[in-house]
Amino acid sequence: MISRAGQQSRQAKAPRYSPPCQGGCPVHTPVQSYVNLVAQGRFRESLREIMAYNPFPSSCGRVCFHPCEDNCRRGDVDSSISIMAIKRFVTDTVRDSGEWVEKQDVDATNGKKVAVIGSGPAGMSAAYDLARMGCDVTVLEREKAAGGMLRRGILDFRLPQDILDHDIDYILSHGIDLKTGVELVANSEVNGDGSKVSIDSLTGAGYDAVLVTVGLSASRGLPIPNTDAKGVHLAVPFLRAVNEGELPDLGEDVLVVGGGNVAIDVARSAKRVSNGKVKMCCLEARDEMPAHEWEITDAVAEGIEMHCSRGPNEVKMDDTGNVTGLEIKEVACVFDAAGRFAPEFHADSEHVLECDTLILAIGQMSELDFCDGSGVERNERGQLIVDRNTWMTTRDGVFAGGEVAAGPGAAITAIAGGHTAATEIAKYLELDNPARFLPPEDQYLESLPAETADKVRKENRATAPQLGVDERIVDFSEIDLGFGSWDAVREAQRCMNCAAGATVVGEKCTSCLTCVRACPYDIPEISEEVRVAQMDPNKCQSCGICAAECPANAIEISMEIDRPGLPAFDKLEAGQDVVGFYCQYGRFANPEAGLNAKVEFEGVQMLPVLCTGRLEETDILRPIVEGAQTVFVCSCPDVSCHHNRGSWRAHKRIARAQQLLEDAGTDRDRVKSFVTYPSGSGYAPFIEELKNMTESKVGK
């Protein structure tokens, strides 16, 4: 009765391109994949996808500088997707449910021992990778708790300690031995109780490789007079004291020197500690400040004054040695014509910014005295000499990773450095699978062409709520409150599925032009020379409409995380006489419709599709062939369809399916259509009506 043409599985092919959001991420997290899993309500699966690449998902959901968003092609249409906020939503939701992702598989122990010095994001990420490759890993940390600068340099209002603890506990659950209160020293200072160790003592204890990830744990001072005055602080010790609850005694007028992210954190922390006046001065102009723009915006909102293009000249103090201010000079330029740091100042521009507390946040450096006599050499600037191809130091078997090797960076960059170091150590130890942590070799898509962007439906970006300014500056309560399920899912659904679109099987294409006529984005082209349809991956919006319309079944869709794919129907479940296809986007059109991973109704088999425009007539009719009494399709209103003309195409195919039933002598009403409206009450009334109409067949 009904042809099954087009029902063979359209197995996804590996795309030639990857989405640029993934390329922008230093650890190459498959952003598109985990965002789309959130769009489908599959939160735990989304977290599992994240954690295969990033062992600090909860922390990065709060403090990452989200370069993925800078590369998001949704920004070519309206605004980039709130990817970091979606990641935080996933981690918070799954953690609060009590069903965190299970521990990842650990390969059989390979007998290799690795010591990791430093428990910051680089060190812990490397330890995580090496443990999963079967190494016996020990992490040595001089502080009383792991986390590095994530713990000591980032305050609770951005990253609460218990959130960081959760990430670290998961990493340690892979069999990693953490030893705290251990200081790395030169050979002559090693003691017998294990609280002080050296490079030599570690290699002598049977470790096959040592990884140094001590980070940039010390603050730089200023080469100007009177920095030893009372009331002058350095950034890192200040942040450490605040994080440990040892609040320093600050005055009523605090001045922070520096324009980077650390300086912003110091100023915002000082505001909460002193509750007085806090101001900043930096060499850079306002638009040159190295701090992230959103950090600066938050600081200004909290009442912190910015004195830009000002350079420190001398600390002023009174007769008792207490700081009274900072003499500064107006900056003419910070960089020379070649872009090198070479500040110049206007003559006779000295003036004083008064203060009773001065905090210097002009940069950080590593503490590397333990290298003396170890064979691990430093250059003339005191930095480790590292082979940039292998990340090995000048001593065989001793590697470096993270900021101590690559210089200042964000947490996600340090995590990437940890992955890289682990990969190189695995090669050095001749392990079997170091390639598992290497980035993909795919090319990344370019910006979305303007002519395509104009055809994509505009959708407003969602932003997570924050505490009001008056509430946030009184203590260290977390400022960002995070998405609820409604906003997170709707925001995730703005993803355009870049690089997951249509490809043409050349030997099947008949050059019939059906795809050219069907595509709402004008993507397919057929040249006179080739006579085969061509899909530009840089333009395709992955709606699947062309694949559903192609009479030769010559088009495949590369969307790997579309759970059912096409065909969406595999077999009729026992006791289910009604089968419903529903749009994965439209199902969340109303927050009251339910945000669980499955939409379930008694006697009804519900099948999600990423846009009902992907359905063919044979997809719609196949459940009837297999014994279903009724099939219905839930589509979005045309005005809110995620893909242009997707719902319109779905309604045309529903009408064709009904006509095929009628031509075969069967009641055409066995196929029904339903539109879910944002202001409606979801599927429940329609399902109830359907049950009443087919009472003898539904829910028996």
Q: Give me the CATH superfamily of the largest domain.
A: FAD/NAD(P)-binding domain
What oligomeric state do the depicted chains represent? single chain
How much helical structure, as a percent, in the residues?
25-40%
- Major sheet: arrangement of strands: 4-3-2-7-19
- The CATH topology of the largest domain comes to FAD/NAD(P)-binding domain
* Percent of residues in beta strands: 15-25%
Low-confidence stretches: 1-15, 562-567, 588-597, 696-700
Number of strands: 28
Count every helix, treating DSSP H or I runs of 4 or more residues as helices: 23
Shape: elongated
Distance between the termini: 27 Å
Count of structural domains: 5
Average pLDDT score: 86
- Rg from alpha-carbon coordinates: 30 Å
Q: Mind describing the biggest β-sheet?
A: 5 strands, parallel
What is the top-level CATH class of the largest domain? Alpha Beta
CATH architecture of the largest domain: 3-Layer(bba) Sandwich
Structural class by SSE content? alpha/beta
Description:
It contains 23 helices and 28 strands. Residues 1-15, 562-567, 588-597 and 696-700 have low confidence and may be disordered. The longest helix has 18 residues, at 411-428. The protein is 29% helix and 17% strand. Strands 4-3-2-7-19 form a five-stranded parallel beta sheet. Strand 13 and strand 14 (323-335) form a beta hairpin. It has five domains: 20-103 and 441-492, Fumarate Reductase Iron-sulfur Protein, Chain B, domain 2 (Orthogonal Bundle), CATH 1.10.1060; 113-217 and 366-432, FAD/NAD(P)-binding domain; 219-365, FAD/NAD(P)-binding domain (3-Layer(bba) Sandwich), CATH 3.50.50.60; 502-557, Alpha-Beta Plaits (2-Layer Sandwich), CATH 3.30.70.20; 578-693, Rossmann fold (3-Layer(aba) Sandwich), CATH 3.40.50. Helix 2 runs antiparallel to helix 3 (43-51) and helix 2 crosses helix 18 (485-492). With 700 residues, the chain is of the alpha/beta class.
